Every structure is written in C-alpha cells, then in structure tokens.
Amino acid sequence: MIHDMIAIIRDYWLLLLIGQYPNGPLGGLANTLILSALSIALAFPASILFALARLSKSPLLRWPVTALVYFTRGVPLLMLILWSYFLVPLVSGADVPSFVTMLTTLVVYQSAFLSEVVRAGIVALGPGQMDAARALGHNYVGAMRFIILPQALYNMIPSIISTFVSTIKDTTLGYVINVPDLTFAASQVNNQLLTQPFQVFLILAIVYFAICWTLTHFANRLERRITRRRAGLSSLPAAALVAPSKIISEQP
Amino acid sequence: MSGFDLSAILGNPEYAAMLLHGIEMTFIIYAGSWSLAMALALLLLGLRLSPFRFGDPLVAAYVSYHRNVPTLVQLMLWYFGIFTLMPSGVATWLAIHNAEAIFAVIGLGLCQAAYFSEDLRSGVRSVSPGQMQAARALGHGYVSAMRFVIMPQGVRNALPPLINHSVSLFKNSSLAVVIGASELTHAVKEIENLSFRTFEIYVIGTVLYLFFSLVIMSIGAYLSMRADPARSARA
Question: What residue stretches are annotated with the ABC transmembrane type-1 domain (chain A) (predicted)?
Fold first, then answer.
C-alpha cells in the first residue's frame, strides 16, 4: 500500500508537479498555485472597491454590488463555472483556454467573498477613526487611503490567507471543465494506472492537506499576533489567545 | 436557435421531468448529508467535551483533515478510491442502490460534520462558565446541566454559523455531479446537451439554486428569531 504510493510518486512526480512542461503546457501543482495566486491578486483590488461601494451612501453604488454579492453567494461555484464556460468565449469571441475561464470565475467569486471580509474589517474599526480623520482635515479618499484601509487591511491579513486557502480548494472544481491543475493531473495518473485509484487519490488528498494545513496554521498564528498587537499588549493572558479562531473558511 | 425561450425547456415534459428528478435527488443528498453531519457533529462535540484523554486531539485531527482537503477530492477518494477497496458483496449492493448518491451523502456529510462540530463548539464555549456553576449549585448533575442549561444556550449561539454552513452544504451538493450522481446540476448539464438551449437551462438552474438557498436562509432566520427574539430585533 505505502509501497504502491511511493512507486506512484516516483514515477509521476513530474506530471503531478508541472504537467508536460516544457514539452507541453504547464500543469499539475504549479498550475493550481499559479491559478490561486492570480485569482487572489486580481480579486483583492476588486474586493476593496466592492466593499467601499457597499458601504457608500449612494444607492446607485450600493445596490448593484449588494445584488452581485448575494447572487454569487447564493449560487454554487460549479454553476458559476458552467456560466463562465459558456459566456466567456461568447463575450470575448475567441477560443478561451479553460485556465482563463476558471480564473475569471474565481476572480468574480472570490471578490464577492473577500469584499465581505474587507467590509467587516472596515466596520470593525468603528466610526471614530473616520470622524477623527475627517476632523484632522482628510477628505473621504484621504481618510480611506491613509487611515481606514491600512488598519482594516492589516487586521484582515489572516482572513486573506484563509481566502487563499479556499481558493486553492476551489481550483479543484476546474476539473469539470478540464483545467489542467493538480486534480486533473492526478486523474490522468489514475487513468494510466487504472489499478490503484485509492492510492492515487490518497496522495492527492495528502498533498492538498499539506499545503492548506500549512497556510491555515500560519494564518492562525498571524491572527493571534495581530489580535495581541491591536489590543495594545505585548502579552495577553494565554487563555485569551487560544480562543477558537474566528477565521471564516468557506467551502469547499 | 431563436431568442430567449424558457418554455422550450419548461414546456417539454421530458425536460421538466428531468429537472424535477434532479431537484428531488439534490434534496435527498442534502437531507441525508445534513442529518449525517449533524449527528456526527454532536458525537464529535461530545468526544471533545468528555474527559476521555484522546478525544480532543482525535477530533482536532478529524476537523483539520476535512477542512484542509478540498471537498471534491474527498468525494473522489470515496467514490473512485474507497469504493474499489470494499468487499465485493458490499460493492455490488452499493452499485445496485445508487452508489453515487450514497457516496455523495457520505463524503459531504463527513466533511460537513467537521464544520458543524466547530460551530457547535464555539457556541458552547461562548456560554459563560458561571452558567455551569450555577446549574450545578442548583442541584443539576453534569448531564442534566448540559441538557437544560448549557446546550440550549450553546446551540442558540451557534445558530448563525450553522445556518451559513447549511447553505454552503446545499450549494456543495452540486459537487456530487462529479462522481455521477443525478442531482440538479447533472440534470442541467443533461438538458443542455439534449436541447442546446444553454442560456435558458443555466438561467433555470441558477434560479432554482438561488431560490432554495434563500429558502434555507429564511428558515434559518426564522429559527434564530424564535430562539432569541430580543437579539434578532436588535440585529
């Protein structure tokens, strides 16, 4: 059993890591990580704009974005992927690789979720910060840029990392439209071997676990440190620090 | 293909029957995995609160595995992997009795139990320890204090995240399509293949998912209101 798994890793590690590259397109774990990193990098600025729009006084800004967020959160990601699979080529008028389709979906999906995180981060600061910034002569943009967002984003770093973890898990759904990621590579390996599906998918689960667990662990430690720093204490009593993590990790 | 025409799908009895069957399967998978998850979550919570020494690390490992491995991979491991390792008698029985749906229920339920048990745990933890002391002082035993004083408050505290996770379980039931269960997303894809009315059928599927998600959310909102009218009025 373990012998089989070692043999699979020995024979297929290159395919699981980078796919057929450089003799073909990049794939495997490399694609999973690039896809996740790109989605978060693109979703992050969008989520700040969405959060500001949702907190804005103008209904013209608030309503469409609120509707988008509710829509995105009410529909399964799989359904959104199928929508993109159908709409992205139609809108762009070109043959779009599945990687781009998946990236588009994830950016929309994660900006909706992240915008809630950003919004919560801004609301959690309380109105006093804004009032004080305005009293000091900052206008709205200046106050946001120099006072509110730096604090809110700093507090949010752990949540952003856990959104990154969710994104890594979400990329697996690209399997449905044949995105050449780690899951796809594993199913290719499974198709070549045919006889050891349990071993192949166990390896897959272990790899995802190793990556996501490391990141989650890092996020939790960071959150404790940030909570401590925000509380203005160099050391809180241990009991206050081991409280269950409030990081919302949405699924899958 | 001409224009946007929902009746091309809804008016066709064959497609309508496929949609209904998909909705039915989605709800069977949802109800099955929700019940499995809740039962298991209570068990995990009990293990964690019990004086049994290995309870805590055991549950922590369970939760950690299910939160850090993508649900889709868990489903694949069950259906493509563990299924093949089962003794042939069991495997044949499963194959006859809609193995896809059964493994969807098992995979989604086990995974969701981790989320539910964490929700319940933080709900119970946020009940102040004074409540336990007061209950014991009034003559309640441990079990009865748990049953009448701690758990009702703990579950009430845990309601909002439980509702959120119930909605995400409903959405995640769509993942069952990957292992071939004939639920709603499966029906949508089948009808798309048959009718070529991609836009219409996606609109129908999306509206159905949105509608049921909203129904689950409003049931949750109603329950929170029933559980704690004062807090809901403030929120």
Answer: 29-219
Mean predicted lDDT score pLDDT of chain A: 88
**Residue A35 in tokens:** 């896809």
In order of A79, A91, A153, B98, B198, the CA distances from B206 in angstroms are 7, 19, 33, 25, 12
User: How close A66 comes to chain B (CA, Å)?
Assistant: 15
Helices B198-227 and B184-195 cross at an angle (nearest 10°) of: 160
ipTM of the complex: 0.89
Instruction: Give residue ranges of A with CB < 8 Å to any B CB.
Output: 71, 74-79, 82-83, 86, 165, 168-170, 172-173, 175-176, 183, 187, 190, 197-202, 204-205, 208-209, 212-213, 216, 243-244, 249-252
For CA atoms A225, A229, A231, A237, give the dihedral sign: positive
Q: State pLDDT tens for residues A109-152.
A: 999 999 999 999 999 888 899 999 999 999 999 999 999 999 99
Rounded mean pLDDT, A231-238: 55
- Of the candidates B103, B69, B42, which has an alpha carbon nearest to the alpha carbon of residue A251? B69
CB contact under 8 A, A208 and B68: yes
* Selection from B171, B70, B91, B64 nearest residue A201 by Cα: B70
Q: Which pLDDT value is given to residue B231?
A: 66
Q: Which of B62, B66, B171, B179 to mutate to test the interface with A (most CBs of A within 10 A)?
A: B171
Write the single-letter amino acid at A128.
Answer: G
For the segment A68-88, what is each residue's pLDDT rounded down to a tens digit? 998 998 899 999 999 999 999
Q: pTM for this one?
A: 0.89
